[in-house]
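Long-time lurker. I teach an intro course on protein structure, and each term I like to show students one example going from raw sequence to a predicted 3D structure in token notation. This year I'd like something fresh instead of my usual example. Would anyone be willing to generate the tokens for the chain below so I can use it in lecture? Attribution to the forum is fine with me.
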Amino acid sequence: MQLEISPELAELRTALRRFTTDKLEPIALEIDRTGEVPQQAFDALRTQGYLVTRVDTTMGSDAIKLAELTFEDCFVPDGAVLGEVGKGFKIAMDSLVSGRKP
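-- Reply from a regular --
Happy to contribute to a lecture. Here you go:
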């Protein structure tokens, strides 16, 4: 299945890939060795307008990390909005509830 994304999302994807290649790949061995993401990585994200607000491990696996990424002062064009503005949290919670129903 081929999915098309908007030019804005393609630009965001390109920027994040460039950030990963330029800023995270050079310290990837350190992250793997220590199991910790150095503060410099969070600082570099912050300078790009991204803020990592929480990092957790998944239940039963320390190898898998989940991170909450917050976008501050980001413009979202009308064509990139999914659902109704201001209703994202409710949609996310409803999806969790529906996933737990027998």
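Some talking points for your students: The first strand starts at residue 50 and ends at 58. The chain has one domain: 7-100.
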